[in-house]
Design a protein that fits this description.
This is YqgF/RNase H-like domain-containing protein. About 35% of the residues lie in helices and about 20% in strands. The chain is α+β, with helices and mostly antiparallel strands.
């Protein structure tokens, strides 16, 4: 007598979703289920963030992550590899000068990815400021891709960073604004690493040549390679 065998269908594979945004680039949003339960070797994800690489592969040695808070007139900058979080500076630049200065800092600090806070509304929808951030992130992504560096957007909604954004727009003493900006940038980096980059949104340049440069970029810091 034949014994019936229960057959379990495999769960469908979750894929990254390519979303077009108002900036000069595309956004590659990676669902949390995909990132948390994907193959540890990360072959399914074309551009895994450093937070995920470092968690799933203890032997992986990559660059730093540079956190950015793009304010109306000032940009807070911080640095981390996930172990400690170091505020760097506050830039009072805009446009091309800001983008080039950010790239200079990344090169000096040996960073290979940028984590930019995205100020969504309380219900998770786009805002005027978030659209401006996306626009700057798109231009920065195109410049960064020339060097093989990636740009990610990190949702700030629901964190203490959201409250800090409101403080910045108030009439506060300059030194207090600076401290707030630096603290905000550290908060976003902390959230990014605590979630393993699972809700980080990759800003992908439209240019296929630049996308290819990202794919060919070394996955490890050359100082650690044999």
């Amino acid at each position: 007598m034949a014994v019936p065998i229960a057959v379990t269908k495999p769960a469908p594979l979750t894929r990254a979703i390519l979303v077009k945004d108002p900036s000069s680039a595309y956004s590659l949003r990676c669902p949390s289920v995909y990132l948390c339960h994907c193959n540890p070797k990360r072959k399914e994800l074309p551009f895994p963030p450093n937070a995920l690489r470092r968690k799933t592969d203890p032997k992986w040695r990559g660059g730093f992550s540079l956190g950015l808070d793009l304010g109306l007139s000032r940009t807070g900058v911080a640095l981390s590899k996930g172990f400690c979080f170091r505020p760097l500076t506050v830039l009072e630049l805009r446009g091309q000068k800001l983008e080039l200065r950010i790239l200079d800092i990344a090169e000096k600090e040996e960073a290979d990815e940028f984590i930019i806070g995205l100020p969504l509304s309380s219900d998770g929808k786009e805002t005027i400021q978030s659209n401006k951030v996306r626009s700057v992130a798109g231009r920065l992504a195109a410049r960064a891709a020339e060097r093989g560096w990636r740009v990610y957007l990190q949702d700030e909604h629901g964190t203490s960073a959201e409250a800090a954004c409101h403080m910045i727009n108030m009439y506060l003493p300059f030194d207090q604004v600076i401290r707030t900006l630096l603290a905000l940038r550290v908060m976003v980096l902390e959230r990014y690493f605590s979630l393993l980059g699972e809700d980080a949104e990759l800003v992908l340049p439209k240019s296929l040549d630049l996308q290819e440069k990202l794919r060919r970029a070394p996955s490890e810091d050359s100082d650690f390679c044999e």
